[in-house]
């Protein structure tokens, strides 16, 4: 069983991993297009979390994780509890490109018809939201910074995330 991570799964998979591969999903973009009312925000002050948003000419680089043998059922249950908490994500299988060839992996993509979908927000608006929101798993900015740092460590370039990380640092700095 393979799972595609493009956000917090990259740095916090929360399941036993047997192998990791850098992978690319064609036709999808990593985007802060989901309002978070549980993990990184609240219903009163939603944060933003990453999702895969369909975009015909785009691609998203992330990590494909092989789940350790024997942990597949437990991992699937845990992923569903974590990712499907508000049903804004759709569970699907994506074709990924890796250095060792194509593969299929489980992934969670945004449902553009869900009320939490907010695609098309400008980067400055995203930064303002992320700088202030806090949810059950902590400040929204920590989620952004951890994701941006781990992408950089893997050599994955994401200019929008890099810009957001720097802008949120400036917004969060003591005055």
Automatic annotation (TrEMBL):
Superkingdom: Bacteria
SUPFAM superfamilies documented for this protein: Gamma-glutamyl cyclotransferase-like
InterPro entries membership: ChaC (IPR006840), GGCT-like (IPR013024), GGCT-like_sf (IPR036568)
Pfam family name, one: ChaC
Keyword terms: Lyase
Top EC group: lyase
Keyword Zinc: no
EC number: 4.3.2.7
PANTHER family for this protein: CATION TRANSPORT PROTEIN CHAC-RELATED, GLUTATHIONE-SPECIFIC GAMMA-GLUTAMYLCYCLOTRANSFERASE 2
The protein's name: glutathione-specific gamma-glutamylcyclotransferase
Organism expressing this protein natively: Pseudogemmobacter lacusdianii
Upper classification of the organism: Bacteria, Pseudomonadati, Pseudomonadota, Alphaproteobacteria, Rhodobacterales
């Amino acid at each position: 069983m393979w799972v595609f991570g493009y956000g917090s799964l990259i740095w916090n998979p929360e399941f036993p991993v047997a192998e990791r591969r850098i992978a690319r999903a064609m036709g999808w973009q990593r985007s802060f297009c989901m309002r978070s009312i549980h993990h990184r925000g609240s219903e009163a002050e939603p944060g933003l979390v990453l999702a895969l948003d369909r975009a015909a000419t785009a691609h998203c680089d992330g990590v494909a994780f092989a789940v350790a043998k024997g942990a597949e059922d437990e991992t699937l249950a845990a992923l569903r509890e974590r990712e499907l908490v508000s049903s804004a994500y759709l569970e699907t299988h994506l074709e990924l490109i890796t250095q060792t060839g194509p593969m299929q992996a489980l992934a969670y993509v945004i449902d553009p018809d869900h009320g939490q979908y907010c695609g098309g927000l400008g980067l400055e608006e995203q930064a303002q939201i992320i700088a202030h929101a806090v949810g059950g798993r902590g400040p929204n900015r920590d989620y952004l910074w951890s994701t941006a740092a781990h992408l950089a460590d893997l050599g994955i370039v994401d200019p929008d995330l890099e810009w957001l990380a720097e802008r949120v640092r400036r917004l969060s700095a003591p005055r």
